[in-house]
Amino acid sequence: MPMREGIYGLLAEFDTPTELVTAAKAAYAKGYRRMDCYTPYPLEEAAEAIGFDEPQERGVARICLLGGLLGGCAMFSLETWVSVWAYPLNVAGRPLFSWPAFVIPAYEWTILFAGLSAAFGMLALNRLPAPYHPVFNAANFRDGATTDKFFLCLQSDDPKFSSAESRAFLESFRPVSVVEVDH
Predict the structure, then answer these.
(1) DSSP SS3 for 91
(2) What residues make up the domain containing 92?
(3) Whole-model pTM?
(4) How many structural domains are present in the chain?
(5) Distance between the two ends of the chain, CA-based, in angstroms?
């Protein structure tokens, strides 16, 4: 279902994490899938309640592995090309392809590429940097999201979303407030 023009979703504010988790579990059970919880500290129960299965962690691990393999192979290939074909030097009668000498720099490049690909892969999978998010438009979110409030946002692109029904559903949990979030 396409996103409705002008509204991102409904944002319910709760005072305690228990209220948030209860509302999130009920929303998931009712069929809402496009929702998110905002808390001032990590709350695993809320992530489980909305069906978050952490696919980014597996993605970052794969990206890190591929980056490390690419880095190790790239450095080993570079050293082989330089020593055997581009600038062959006969040093004390040693062979041109002396692979034991190539292992340490290849290992270093493996670590370098794995670390860089993990960092950039995490940024890409999390769609960062993202200096703007529609929930920043809600005044109550700006005032309490990082200190002492807990929020549940039902997004308007959810197939189950209906402005009136979703508002009534959220208000049944007696939140502090329920506000529409503009784009």
Answers:
(1) coil
(2) 55-125
(3) 0.70
(4) 2
(5) 16
Task: Locate 72 and state its tokens.
Answer: 């190790």
Residue 179's pLDDT band, with cuts at 50, 70 and 90, is very high
Residues 6+ apart with CB under 8 A from 151: 11, 12, 13, 14, 20, 37, 38, 39, 135, 141, 145
Supply the DSSP string of 126-176, one letter for each residue. Answer: TT------GGGG-HHHHHHTTTT-EEEEEETTSTT--HHHHHHHHHTT--S
pLDDT of the residue at 3: 47
d(CA 117, CA 115): 6
Same domain flag for 67 and 114: yes
CA distance 98 to 79: 10
1 band by pLDDT with thresholds 50, 70 and 90: very low
**Would residue 41 count as lying in a domain?**
yes
Chain mean pLDDT for the chain? 90
